[in-house]
Amino acid sequence: MKAKIGNPNEPWCPVCEDHTEYHLKEIRPGKTRAMYTCNECGSNTWSPTNPFLFGVVVIVLILGLNFLMFAADKNNTAQLQPGEILLGKVAALGMSIFMLAVVWGNSKHWRKFQKWRKKLYQEKIDAVLEQK
Ligand SMILES: [Zn+2]
Questions:
Q1: Cα-to-centroid distance, 105 and ligand 1 (Å)
Q2: Of 39, 36, 33, 42, residue with least CA distance to 10
Q3: Domain co-membership, 78 together with 19
Q4: What is the pLDDT of residue 4?
């Protein structure tokens, strides 16, 4: 059992509300992705990333991606077919929506983690005060 401290660099399970033991998530046998599965409840767990920094990075990526597709459409230096440009735009839009969903999910995760950490520290402070 790990020490009960709120560490944003460690995966934190939103279901168990704890730093539980975890393993890398498997999409297919032998294939893992940068997401963890909680050993206790089997749900997704990951280290809470500061949603502000994460959001800024994603917005820059989204703007870059859409700008790229817009520029490709306007200048068409890559000699793309109209169908390819449309496909690229749909892909850029899909990626944008996917990334926003990730940001949203992470922000919810972060807020829950912060609430839990605050409660944990309050309990520790209360315990110290009671000893006096
Ligand atoms: Zn769990």
A1: 16
A2: 36
A3: no
A4: 66
Domain identity same for 64 and 41: no
Domain count, the chain: 2
Same domain, 27 and 41: yes
pLDDT tens by residue, 105-128: 999 999 999 999 999 999 989 999
Name the pairing type of β-strands 31-38 and 44-45: antiparallel
pLDDT of residue 1: 44
Query: What is the C-alpha to C-alpha distance for residues 14 and 20, in angstroms, rounded to an integer?
Result: 10
Residue 104 has pLDDT above 60, yes or no: yes
Residues 77 and 93 in one domain: yes
DSSP state of 111: H
Q: pTM for the whole thing?
A: 0.73
Are 35 and 79 in the same domain?
no
CA 39 to centroid of ligand 1, rounded, Å: 7
> How much distance in Å is there from the Cα of 11 to the middle of ligand 1?
10
Domain limits at 56? 48-131
